[in-house]
Amino acid sequence: MIRDITLGQYYNVESLIHRLDPRVKMAWTFMYIIGLFIINDFIGFVFAGICLALVIYMSKVPVKFMVRGLKPIFFIIVITFILNMLMIGGEVLVKWWIFSITKEGLKQASIMAIRLIMLIIGSSILTLTTKPINLTDGIEKALSPFKRFGFPAHEIAMMTTIALRFIPTLLEETDKIMKAQQARGADFESGNILRRAKQLIPILVPLFIGAFRIANDMAMAMEARCYRGGDHRTKMHSMQYEKRDFVAYGLIVVFLAAIILLRIYF
Amino acid sequence: MSIKVENLCHVYRKGLPEESKALDEVSFDVSDNQILGVIGHTGSGKSTLLQHLNGLLKADSGEISIDGMRLYAPEVSMLDIRKKVGLVFQYPEYQLFEETVAKDIAFGPKNLGLTEEEIDSRVREAMSLVNLDYDTFSEKSPFDLSGGQKRRVAIAGVLAMKPKILILDEPTAGLDPKTHKDILNMVVDIHRKEKNITVFVSHNMNDIANISDNIIVMDKGKCVLQGKPEEVFSHSDFIKSIGLDLPDVTQLMKDLGIEREDGKAIFSLDEAENMIFNMIGGSK
Ligand SMILES: Nc1ncnc2c1ncn2[C@@H]1O[C@H](COP(=O)(O)OP(=O)(O)OP(=O)(O)O)[C@@H](O)[C@H]1O
Ligand SMILES: [Mg+2]
Predict the structure, then answer these.
(1) Local mean pLDDT, 10-residue blocks, chain A (266 residues)
(2) For chain A, what is the mean pLDDT?
């Protein structure tokens, strides 16, 4: 059901990847994505794929979890593949009516699809291995140098934390409301688009009312505990780099260098 | 009417590290015209169990039959089940969404595809069952009502579907003592009038003991005890060991050391009074 959505889900096990500083993991994800766009040949993807497989292995998160994240965007991948395949001109392999598949088109389409898949899997590792709270702490810390120029680093981090924190709550709420309306005979699965859109009203109205109620309660609870923004707030767990974090930073450089070399020499 | 549940198992979040077995080989029967009370500690699987009874959740293994109709048989449609089994959720007032009370109550009957007149008469009937005056409340917005009134509207929304089996998940949670009593009496009244099967969850042992014909006790997803209230509450040590409590009267009689000859628990105030008067040789 709706609760199976894995967006931003954390997979709770002990592993080296889980213990890494969130800033390192964010840097890794960022550089990995850049790397994926530098690569334009299969040999590069093989290399990146091996690195990805290693990280997945070390993270102890089951592969089927990573693949699950692909399901919702499977459709987009297929469309991208087909469009790329048909749009690019070159040496014609198959021709049918006004469509023609070219060798270059096929290659470009495969590269695009592989890139998308690896992008999703790679970036899901970040959220699968980092607790949302640590993630936002990491964001805050990474953005804090810009505070000097009036950049609201703490506020942004707090908003992100709350937004992430509310995803499961709202999903749970949606699930509950859907069930309650289904118990009254509502049917969300059949009918044409218009009918289905109308069927959303019994879910959306209570959901919005509930969301405002929860938001209000939460604001109240924060105020009751004297929350007044980021100034002078200290942290219970201050983030400190360890040796493994520096090693990981070093590996990013190696990874990017290897990808650039592969691009130049092959 | 009858409900038969056999070896029901349900696992939440299967395949995740936090997977939890919410129901573990639960079996019980409910026969016609009975009130079944369900008790258990927080998280023992009561709500999960109730959601199976009208097909909102599907069991991983096990069988449920409603009136001989097997819920998991391929030819059974969900609407058929929902027509027979009405489920009122925990805090049902949060599911209200229509502009007026009458429209909200009409949502269920409408989904059943009834005619306008039939829907209108059912709305009136359901409102009178929950003691809401039609003229005063039918055109009001459900969001302008008090908590207790909202809950009545939500219950009426399920009653309007005329279920043969009415399931209520903690219908009295979070209400003031008077509304609590009103809702409870209302449930018993409806049960008498409609001659339905009522399944009801509560954390209040007094209510459970007084209105149920039978009780099932849940603990960690297992149905650990079932029977008539006087039998269930005679296992006082066991009941306490799983985080529950005895009804006040039962506890009092136990503390006073007054027992019934057959060893069964005493929970009705009248019976307790009589026994105490017998003992001290007085009368009211
Ligand atoms: N949608 C869900 N996803 C995952 N786990 C769940 C879900 N719903 C319930 N659980 C878990 O299943 C177990 C049983 O929950 P359930 O809601 O049935 O308990 P309950 O007996 O109704 O408790 P309460 O008295 O608090 O209402 C709990 O451990 C709970 O954490
Ligand atoms: Mg419950």
Answers:
(1) 58 89 92 91 91 92 80 84 81 75 85 90 88 84 85 85 82 90 85 81 92 91 86 77 92 92 85
(2) 85
B251 Cα to chain A: minimum distance (Å) = 37
Q: Start-end ranges of CATH 3.40.50.300 in chain B?
A: 3-234
Pick B3-234's CATH classification: 3.30.450.40, 3.30.450.20, 3.40.50.460, 3.40.50.300: 3.40.50.300
Q: Residue B140's closest CA among B148, B150, B126? A: B150
Q: Which of B10, B20, B57 should be mutated for ligand 1, with most atoms under 8 A from CB?
A: B20
Q: What pLDDT is recorded for position A1?
A: 46
Torsion of CA A19, A20, A26, A30, to 10 degrees: -120
Instruction: Tell me the average pLDDT of chain B.
Output: 91
Contact A181, B95 (CB under 8 A): yes
Residue A18 contacts B where some CB pair is shorter than 8 Å: no
Residues in the 5 Å CB sphere of ion ligand 2? B 47
| Contacts with B, A 207-246, CB within 8 Å | 209-210
Q: Which residues in chain A are contacts of B83 at CB distance < 8 A?
A: 185
Q: In chain A, whose CA is at the least distance from the CA of B93?
A: A206
How is chain A split into domains, by residue range?
1-130+239-266, 153-233
